[in-house]
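Course assignment 3, question 2. Fill in each field.
Student: A.L.
Task: Predict the tertiary structure for the chain below.
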Amino acid sequence: MAQPNSFRYTVIDVFTTESLAGNPLAVFPDSSAIDETTMQKIARELNLAETAFVLPATRKDCAARVRIFTPAKEMAFAGHPTVGTAFVLLQEKIVASNVSAFLLEEQVGPVALRIEEGERPLIWLRMPPVIDGKCYDSSLCARVLGLEPQDLLPMKPQLLSAGNPTLVVAAKNIVEVDRASLDLAGMKTLRGVDKEPFCVYLFTPTHDGAYSRMFAPEYGIPEDPASGSCMGPLAVLMMRHNLISRSAATRFVSEQGTKMGRRSLLHVEVRGKEAADEIYVGGQVTPIIEGVMTLGSR
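Answer field:
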């Protein structure tokens, strides 16, 4: 009879300083003996927005390699798994605690991280470059979100990608953002003949930055409490439409997950005065679970 294999993992809440808020993430700090098929099955079993698996880096300049899975598919890049995995690597001393910056290897390429010291340190990642996609019909976007065209700001929803294709839609106020919904049928109507799935990021400008929600039913994520990979597209669109002021180092906060009861605060920093300059997303992390998963026959 085959012997079971046991793997340690931790569950953390990302983009929050409170337990049971933010976006939960499972991280397996030593995944060398877990194959790709099993990684996907584990992600489906845990049924969190994402599960991250740490492997030895194949690049000398990276501290570790990370593979990220939703319950339905592997991601080339995602923000909250990157921030959360960085936190676990520091906890596990895979990355020395006195290091202020390092790289993680992901499918999208090396991702740069830096640590901003404080009582609860902020872990920042540099977003991959934001790539422009097509614009979508505002009326169609409003309809599939259960809203009226007049509920949206007078700007075209646009597909942008920083490693994760994101359709960014701007609503007039928080009430409309909270009233929205998007199911799998609506997502398929919105995507139409486009082959590649994408997520839908609905936001409204606020005094501090943005209030937002994210839907990704085709990824197995009906709604996501915190979406780090959407911060690059959000920052680009807000700057292009003058929804935030431009300065040499613009900072703002996106509040997400509140409607779900999992309030998340995503810090965004844009360096330079052009919309496509360096964009960083940062957050704090709260650990909540240490566990062991046992696989195999008994």
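Instructor remarks: The mean pLDDT is 93. The chain has two domains: 5-127+285-295, 131-276.
Grade: pending
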